[in-house]
Specification:
Blueprint: H1 2-7, H2 14-37, H3 40-61, H4 67-84, H5 89-97, H6 113-127, H7 134-145, H8 150-156, H9 161-177, H10 187-209, E1 213-214, H11 220-236, H12 241-254, H13 280-298, H14 305-318, H15 327-340, H16 344-358, H17 360-368, H18 377-388, H19 392-405, E2 407-408, H20 409-427
Helix pairs in contact: 2-3, 2-4, 2-6, 3-4, 4-5, 6-7, 7-9, 7-10, 8-9, 10-11, 10-12, 11-12, 12-13, 12-14, 13-14, 14-15, 15-16, 16-17, 16-18, 17-18, 18-19, 19-20
C-alpha cells in the first residue's frame, strides 16, 4: 500500500506522514491542476485546499491507501465547485467532472502516468521560465515543484518570509504578464530551457552546500531538495547525458557533507576530511548516474558542464586518501570544462587543479588572469597556492582579504584560521 510507504517509520505522526506525502505528490498535484484549470494561482490554491482537508481528515479517518489519489480527487472536486460558481460553469464542470462520481472512489494515479509525468515536467519548465530572474526561478521551483512552504524557502535563503512571499507573488505575476503557457517547449527552446532548469537546481544545491551568508557552513535541507529535484529531472528526461551528470555531481559532492564540519561545527577542508565519514550510498548512486551519462554519451549524445564536473567529483570520490587523488586527470578535465563552459569560477577551480598537479606557481599563473570582483574565491585560492609555495606572509594577507569578502561566518572563521596558520608558518 502506498500509504505504508510514507508512514512506515517509527514514531512518525499522521502530520509527519502528510508532510511526506505532500513533498512527494505536490508537483504532480499542482502540475495536473494547472493543466486542467490553465491557472497557476488557482491550481496552487486548490492543492493547498486539498492539503488542509488532509490535515483535517486523516488524523481521525486514517491515511488512505492512495494518498496522492485522495489529494487529487479532493482538489478536482474543489475545482468543480469553483467553476460551478463561474458564469461558464457548465462546460468546465462537464470537462472536469466527466466520469467522476461519488461512487467512483479515489482514482489510481498510476493509470494517469502519461499525463502526470508530463505535468511535472511542464511545471518544472514553467518555474524556470526565461522571463524570471534566477533567484525567482529558484524560489518558484522550490515552491511549486519542491512543495516547500514560503517560510521554509525564506529560512533557507535567510530572508524574511514576507519578502519571500512577495518574490514568489511577483514571479507568478511575471509569468501571467508574459502569458507563459503550460506547454512543453520543443527543439532549441527546450534545450535552452533545460539548461536553465539545471542551472536553477544547481543554484539551489550550491546555496545548501556552501551558504552565501549566515552562521552555518551548510544548509542540508537545500542540498537534499536539489538532489531530489535532480533525480526527478533524470527520471523525466532520461535520454539527456547532462541531466544524469547533474544528478551524479550533486550526489557525489553531497556525499562529503558528514565530514565537512567537525564536532564543534567548524568547517573542514577537503584534504582534512575523514573520508570514512563520506556517504557511501550517495557515492554509489552518483557513480551509477555518471555511468548512465557515459553510456548515453557513447551513443553520440553530447555532454556538458555537469557531466564534466561530475567526472571531476568522481576522481575525489574514488580516492580513499587525498594523496591518491589524480590531480593531473582533474586538471585535464578542467581544461575541457574551460572550453565547454568558460567562466571565472571554472578558472579559479582550474587554478586549484593546476596548483596540485603541476605546482603552485602554475596555479598562480592561471589565477592572474581571473577577474571576479567582490568574490572571496580568488583570494582564498591564491592564499592556498601561496601557502603551498612557502610564501606564507603573502598567503596570510590573501586569506584575510578573502575573509573580509565572504558573508558566511563559518567560512570567514576558516579563512582567518588559515591566515593565522600562515603567519605561524612564516615565523617558524
Amino acid at each position: 500500500m502506498r500509504s505504508a510507504l510514507y508512514a512506515d517509520r517509527m514514531g512518525e505522526t499522521v502530520v509527519d506522514t502528510i508532510t511526506a506525502v505532500w513533498r512527494a505528490e505536490s508537483a504532480r498535484l499542482v502540475g495536473a491542476l494547472t493543466r486542467i484549470t490553465r491557472d497557476l494561482d488557482l491550481a496552487e490554491d486548490l492543492a493547498q485546499d486539498a492539503l488542509l482537508s488532509a490535515l483535517e481528515s486523516w488524523p481521525t479517518a486514517g491515511v488512505p491507501d492512495n494518498p496522492g489519489g485522495w489529494l487529487m480527487t479532493t482538489a478536482k472536486r474543489r475545482a468543480i465547485d469553483t467553476f460551478r460558481r463561474a458564469e461558464n460553469l457548465r462546460h468546465k464542470t462537464e470537462l472536469l467532472g466527466h466520469g467522476l462520481t461519488e461512487e467512483d472512489g479515489m482514482p489510481d494515479l498510476t493509470s494517469q502516468v502519461d499525463f502526470i509525468e508530463d505535468d511535472v515536467l511542464r511545471l518544472i519548465f514553467l518555474s524556470c521560465h526565461p522571463s524570471l530572474t534566477p533567484d525567482s526561478r529558484a524560489a518558484l521551483t522550490l515552491r511549486l515543484v519542491g512543495g516547500l512552504t514560503t517560510g521554509e524557502i525564506a529560512r533557507s535563503f535567510l530572508v524574511a518570509e514576507s519578502a519571500m512571499g512577495q518574490r514568489i507573488s511577483r514571479a507568478k505575476k511575471t509569468l501571467a504578464d508574459a502569458r507563459a503557457n503550460f506547454e512543453l517547449p520543443v527543439g532549441d527552446e527546450r534545450a535552452a530551457r533545460l539548461d536553465d532548469v539545471m542551472t536553477v537546481v544547481y543554484l539551489i544545491f550550491n546555496e545548501g552546500y556552501t551558504a552565501t551568508a549566515g552562521g552555518d557552513w551548510m544548509r542540508p535541507e537545500l542540498t537534499h531538495e536539489a538532489i531530489r529535484l535532480a533525480r526527478m529531472l533524470a527520471g523525466l528526461i532520461p535520454d539527456e547525458p547532462d541531466v544524469h551528470g547533474l544528478q551524479a555531481l550533486l550526489e557525489l559532492q553531497a556525499s562529503r557533507s558528514p565530514a565537512r564540519v567537525d564536532a564543534t561545527g567548524n568547517a573542514v577542508l577537503l584534504d582534512d576530511q575523514d573520508r570514512s565519514l563520506w556517504d557511501e550510498l550517495l557515492i554509489r548512486r552518483g557513480l551509477a548516474a555518471l555511468d548512465r551519462a557515459s553510456r548515453l554519451a557513447a551513443t553520440g549524445k553530447p555532454v556538458g558542464r555537469y557531466y564534466l564536473q561530475a567526472a571531476i567529483a568522481a576522481h575525489h570520490a574514488r580516492a580513499a586518501d587525498p594523496s591518491e587523488t589524480d590531480w593531473r586527470a582533474i586538471a585535464d578535465l578542467y581544461d575541457v570544462l574551460a572550453q565547454a563552459a568558460p567562466g571565472p569560477v571554472v578558472e579559479v577551480n582550474r587554478a586549484v587543479a593546476y596548483g596540485r598537479a603541476f605546482g603552485p606557481e602554475e596555479g598562480l599563473a592561471i589565477l592572474e588572469g581571473v577577474s571576479l570582483p567582490g568574490s572571496h574565491l580568488p583570494p582564498s585560492v591564491r592564499g592556498d597556492l601561496l601557502d603551498r609555495a612557502g610564501r606564507h606572509p603573502e598567503a596570510a594577507s590573501a586569506f584575510r582579504e578573502a575573509a573580509e569578502l565572504t558573508d558566511n561566518e563559518s567560512e570567514r572563521a576558516l579563512l582567518l584560521r588559515r591566515a593565522v596558520d600562515s603567519d605561524h608558518g612564516a615565523s617558524s
